[in-house]
Amino acid sequence: MRMSDENGGTLPEGCEHVLERVYEFLDHELDEASGDAIRQHLVDCEPCLDRFDVEQAVKALVNRCCGNDLAPDHLRARVLSRLAQARQTPSA
Ligand SMILES: [Zn+2]
After folding, report:
1. Ligand 1 center from residue 31 Cα (angstroms)
2. End-to-end alpha-carbon separation of the chain, Å?
3. Phi-psi region of 30 (alpha: psi -120 to 50; beta: other; left: phi over 0)
4. Using CA atoms, how far apart are residues 82 and 54, in angstroms rounded to an integer?
5. Are 19 and 10 in contact, with CB atoms under 8 Å apart?
6. Is this structure's pTM higher than 0.70?
7. pLDDT band at 70 (very low <50, low <70, confident <90, very high)
8. Domain residues of the chain, as ranges?
9. Chain centroid offset of residue 47 CA
10. How many whole angstroms from 21 Cα to the centroid of ligand 1?
11. Which CATH number is 13-88 given?
């Protein structure tokens, strides 16, 4: 299965691989070298960083719902505003 190209183009080489492993990265399930590679890719790749930011926020919210207190209020506010933006049509 491929990532959708909703931004009007395919993601650069390596992005799908990174995005597939973002959750492992967030869970600290990757070894140091793999984690560094993903972090470095996110630093260099704006599309991935954008996705990562949203996914990290969503994941943090999920953890919070499950009883862990990992999502600061500013992060929750940020993801909620992101989701609200995503639901809006860009040119009303
Ligand atoms: Zn990327």
Report:
1. 20
2. 32
3. beta
4. 8
5. no
6. no
7. low
8. 13-88
9. 10
10. 12
11. 1.10.10
